[in-house]
Design goal:
The protein is of the alpha+beta class. Helices cover about 45% and strands about 10% of the residues. It has a 3-stranded antiparallel beta sheet. Strands 6-7-8 form a 3-stranded antiparallel beta sheet, with no helix packed on it. Strands 1-2 form a two-stranded antiparallel ribbon. Strand 7 and strand 8 form a beta hairpin. Helix 2 packs parallel to helix 3 and helix 6 crosses helix 14.
């Protein structure tokens, strides 16, 4: 994108005053170096892979600028992508330097661009990063989901049991955990349903459920982004008004074109159009966001044992001129002094010598360490108490821990809806077409409802059941419902403890309940 700027002759610029990271000083426009800003931008505007080439409307690959123009009805079509370095539309033909932002700050922000998928994999080996990547994925799917229909119709128990059995056979729950985890690791995750087909253009053309034959669905494969290459057609690469602008039309996998509609694609964090090519049309990964903070937290934690071993410093006052006059003897005495310097040794000094001991205070150093890890967890969308296994405290302490838990549960619900649900729904769509409908003849749209992400304790369940019982008694006394209605609700409540009971009341209890209901609803005689 910035080749035009690099082709110009460079001239050295005068240094700016207080040119530091946290400086508010701004160099004057006449002394600011525009090439420094160009170099800073270049750190974020990284070029894409060589295979990433735009195509014309016919779907044929063309060169960036040197290819012959493609015509459509006599009108020449652009044969370069919007992010091409020589494209005059970028920034209206010129880059506007950020003179109001100190170059050292701009350079620091610009350096936090795409770090590469291999680097993401390497960084994710760290225990803290791996835990931050994995924990939300597991927590989101821990309690699973319930299967229903879009019309809220009751599903035949045999069909429902078959769907659940096939979900387990395909490992959908584990697939969702992997889907979310690697999306956080790379910033993008692509899942590809495997369909047996004899049509060589099946994957090249947009997805059509009618093309799925009985027994052809084999499962869902997930591909790491360094094995795939995005490919854009003319509308996606050069028409900002297109709905799918800068959304790859195809993804090349193992040399085969796969239309985007066949794939389930999620991104951890969207970036602006101008940055999408540098991210290979992916999103912002969690390792990219927290790598520096993890390093700072680990370095801070490593200081603790070092300070504990070296917190006491002895100060031996002496005549340095005499000491340096015989350096060999001085070093011998210092070695002897260091050898006896511990909490149990005896230090012998001369009558003229004076020794002091300076202690480094470790008070609140644990709070400094915890604060650094809390910042890491906040950037990774995880509560620090879950990652470190500590008591709830949060960044602010006290009630902030409860807020962290609530905020984390809200994040998990977003993960379920935006990341897990698309994968599960595509799986059920293919399963219905491939296996359920041919076997049972039923044809309906499957929807999933995720179970709550939090696990109530036994005491909380008992308290909730007590509230439910009180509410049911109030309704029965008011004549709104009878005992049979309350029993049906109680039997259907999975946490009520009475799911093994029959839905119908026994004859004796039913007669008693009916008599109580009649006595409550009978007209009262006010005559005395």
């Amino acid at each position: 994108m910035l080749k035009w700027f690099r082709s110009l002759k460079r001239t050295p610029a005068a240094p700016a005053e207080r040119d530091s990271l946290f400086s508010n000083a701004t160099p004057a426009p006449e002394v600011a170096n525009p090439f420094a800003y160009a170099d800073a931008f270049a750190k974020s505007f990284q070029r894409t892979a060589e295979d990433l080439k735009p195509t014309n409307r016919a779907g044929q690959p063309v060169g960036a600028m040197d290819a012959a123009p493609v015509t459509d009805g006599g009108a020449a079509l652009a044969t370069f992508a919007m992010d091409a370095a020589t494209n005059p539309q970028v920034f209206n033909g010129e880059l506007q330097p950020a003179y109001n932002l100190p170059i050292i700050q701009l350079d620091w922000y610009a350096s936090q661009g795409f770090i590469g998928y291999q680097v993401c994999s390497l960084i994710s080996q760290h225990w803290l990063i791996d835990k931050i990547l994995t924990m939300p994925a597991r927590d989101a799917m821990r309690h699973g989901y319930e299967i229903g229909t879009s019309d809220d119709d009751e599903i035949d128990p045999k069909v429902l049991a078959f769907i659940k059995k096939r979900d387990k056979a395909f490992g959908i729950k584990d697939a969702c955990v992997e889907f979310v985890r690697f999306n956080r690791m790379f910033g993008i995750r692509i899942a590809m349903p495997i369909i047996d087909t004899t049509d060589p253009e099946f994957y090249v053309k947009p997805f059509n459920i009618d093309g799925v034959k009985p027994g052809s669905y084999r499962g869902i494969s997930q591909i790491d982004p360094y094995w795939i290459t995005p490919e854009l057609d003319f509308q996606a690469g050069a028409n900002p008004a297109s709905i799918n602008f800068y959304e790859p039309t195809w993804w090349r996998i193992n040399g085969q074109r796969i239309h985007r509609s066949h794939l389930i694609i999620i991104r951890n964090g969207q970036v602006a159009d101008v940055l999408k090519p540098s991210y290979l049309y992916g999103g912002i990964s969690v390792p990219q966001k927290i790598a520096l903070r993890v390093y700072a937290a680990e370095r801070t934690a490593n200081e603790a044992p070092q300070l504990a071993l070296s917190k006491r410093t002895s100060l031996w006052k002496m005549d340095m001129k005499q000491a340096l006059a015989n350096q060999a003897l001085f070093e011998q005495k210092m070695a002897w002094f260091a050898a006896t310097r511990d909490n149990f040794g005896i230090k012998a000094i001369g009558l003229q010598d004076e020794v002091e001991q300076l202690d480094t205070s470790l008070t609140d150093f644990d709070a400094v360490i915890n604060q650094q890890y809390a910042i890491v967890c906040a950037a990774g969308d995880c509560p620090v108490n879950k990652i470190l296994g500590t008591a709830e405290s949060g960044l602010g302490g006290g009630a902030a821990g409860s807020y962290d838990e609530k905020s984390y549960h809200e994040y998990l619900q977003s993960v379920q809806e935006n990341e897990c649900q698309p994968l599960i729904e595509r799986h059920h769509l293919l399963l219905m077409k491939s296996e359920v409908t041919p076997k049972f003849g039923d044809n309906f749209d499957v929807v999933v409802k995720f179970n709550p992400v939090d696990s109530p304790t036994a005491l909380e369940i008992a308290t909730l059941n007590g509230v439910k019982a009180t509410t049911a008694k109030t309704y029965i006394d008011a004549g709104v419902i009878d005992g049979a209605d309350a029993r049906q609700v109680l039997v259907s409540d999975a946490d009520g403890g009475y799911t093994s009971l029959e839905s119908d009341l026994p004859e004796g209890i039913e007669a008693t309940a009916q008599a109580q209901l009649e006595s409550m609803t009978a007209p009262k005689n006010d005559d005395k």
